[in-house]
Amino acid sequence: MKIVIRTVFFHFLCIVVFAIFYYNFKKDFVSNIGENKNMLDYLFLSTTIQAGVGMSDIYPISIYGKLLMICQQLIMIMTHVFTLYFFNL
């Protein structure tokens, strides 16, 4: 049960941390909905990436935005692999 709680906490932490990164690097992202993006928009972007759903209305336009998004996707994939490994022990 501790593994489940730690995994859920880790995912929530990743969502918040990457939302802050996306907000700080907002010049590297463009939106279809207009230029007035707030923290909730970046939290939504981070949640969709962490959940593996895909992209939202905001997407990266620079190499830094793409690399930041790739880092979150790789962390998400590695977390799922490690979680599946621990549950199959």
Order of helices and strands: HEHEH
Ends: how far apart?
Answer: 14 Å
Task: Tell me how many strands there are.
Answer: 2
Low-pLDDT runs: none
Q: Biggest sheet: strands side by side, in what order?
A: 1-2
Question: What's the total helix number?
Answer: 3
Radius of gyration: 14 Å
Fraction of residues in β-strands: 5-15%
Overall morphology: elongated
Helix content: 55-70%
Task: Tell me about the largest β-sheet.
Answer: 2 strands, antiparallel
- SS content category: mainly alpha
Mean pLDDT: 86
Defining traits:
single chain, 89 residues, 2 strands, 7% strand
Provide a descriptive summary of the structure in words.
The protein is mainly alpha-helical. It is 67% helix and 7% strand. It is built from three helices and two strands; from the N terminus they run αβαβα. The mean pLDDT is 86.
